[in-house]
Design goal:
Blueprint: H1 2-49, E1 50-54, H2 59-72, E2 76-82, H3 83-88, E3 97-103, H4 105-112, E4 126-132, E5 138-143, H5 145-149, H6 154-172
Length: 176
């Protein structure tokens, strides 16, 4: 009887050690998976947050067409930053870059009317950049508003989705 109890206790201890080892492996795997997922998200976030597309036109023609499309869509250009000229003033020589601040009052007013939604005002007005790269091609870039709006949810997400959809309509007309 005593031998049977010793064997039974040793089996219980062995089973407990196996369960403990499996639990530690499981926890370690879970933590490792979280770390790997974090690294993947960190590395891919910039390419998810910004959208860059090649224009089918030269820089000057893209600028001209873009401004016409913005006007035709009843959006307003709230500001234009000619970064090439700005940086020339500081002694730097960079390729053509224009950053547009776009506004559609039907979207911005909805967000800016409410106190809780004003938190996204630093994202306003919508910004679109048109620039030339060293390969001689012209590109249009903008924030991926549909992705950036998701975490806010509610009214902000709804309004930003609509605004982003509208801007994509007139930007798409300029793309290759």
């Amino acid at each position: 009887m005593r031998i049977a109890n010793n064997v039974s206790n040793k089996n219980k201890q062995f089973k407990f050690m196996i369960m403990k080892k499996n639990l530690l492996i499981g926890i370690g795997s879970f933590i490792g998976g979280l770390l790997l997922m974090g690294v993947i998200i960190y590395k891919s976030a910039p390419s998810l947050m910004m959208m860059e597309d090649e224009s089918k036109y030269t820089f000057d023609k893209t600028v001209e067409q873009f401004e016409a499309e913005v006007k035709a869509a009843n959006w307003k250009v709230a500001g234009i930053h000619d970064m090439q000229k700005v940086l020339e003033g500081f002694g730097h020589n960079v390729r053509a870059v224009k950053i547009y601040e776009l506004c559609s009052s039907k979207y911005s007013a909805v967000i800016l009317e409410k106190d809780d939604e004003r938190i996204v005002s630093p994202l306003m007005p919508c910004r679109v950049a048109i620039y030339e790269k060293s390969n001689g091609k012209t590109y249009i870039t903008r924030m991926n508003s549909t992705l950036m709006a998701k975490p806010f949810g509610g009214l902000i997400d709804e309004v930003m989705q609509k605004a982003a959809g509208e801007t994509e309509v007139f930007i798409t007309k300029l793309l290759k």
